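Why do we care about 3D structure at all? Because function follows from shape, and shape follows, mostly, from sequence. That is the central idea of this module. The next example makes it concrete: a single protein chain, its amino acid sequence, and then its structure expressed as tokens.
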Amino acid sequence: MSEELHVSVDEHVAVLTVDRPLANNSLGGSLLRELLDVSAKLERDDSVRVIVTTANVSDGATAWSPGVDFAQLDGKLGPGADADVMFYGGVMQGDHASLGVSAQARRFDPLGPGRWILQMLNNFQKPTIAAINGAVAGGGIGWAGLHTYRIAGESVKFKAAFGTLGFGPDMGASYFVTKLMGQSAATDFLLRDQPMSAEDAHRAGFVNQVVPDGQVLEHALKVAKDLAQLPPLGLRATVRALRGAETNTLAEQLDLEWDNQRITFATEDAAAAFEAFKTRTKGTYVGR
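And the structure:
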């Protein structure tokens, strides 16, 4: 692991800390590739049941994620700029070796940076909690929206920034903002490009909780550890259902829910959880 991303695991909870203070924790260098690789590894590790992401907002950094590293774009925009070359060449989003897109396939790739979002979305089949302890802007909005649950500090500000910079939204920002906040609020946020406070983000549905500054990670870990005490296959089934509900028809969602029930009804954990419920005792769950 590089010095820009730290990973720790305790009591079935993994904490990913982005640590790029000199670049204000922007999504540059090899950071996105590492986040993708680490999420895939944590997904395969059954001892990890919940994932928390946070950022180092000391040492001069003020953002949880401001999106792209502006230093990597400076002097490269304008007539003749080729976003495909910039993306795959590493200017915008760093090392893309893990994307598995060959030089020839890149010519037909319709997704660009969106490939990161789809791969992360597919990898994150466990509850993920964004411990948002600094400002969020640009592609960071999409990165936050990717999580299952979001907790923000009371002074945190959210800003789309795309319109102000003359760009269109990327990294799934328009998708997640619209899904979480609704069309009207998303239009106001993205089009007018005004900063949104943590409280306004909570009222709009973009974040789940607002907590005092300095206590964001503490609250996120409490939620994570509470979730980690639950049957892990039930957690997976719930995340699977929530993800499916974003795009499924009712019939497709009912089919998914029944598939979840068929799987979870036949687990040791379901029997243990039902017994704990009957006897009002605390159950122990092994993920089988």
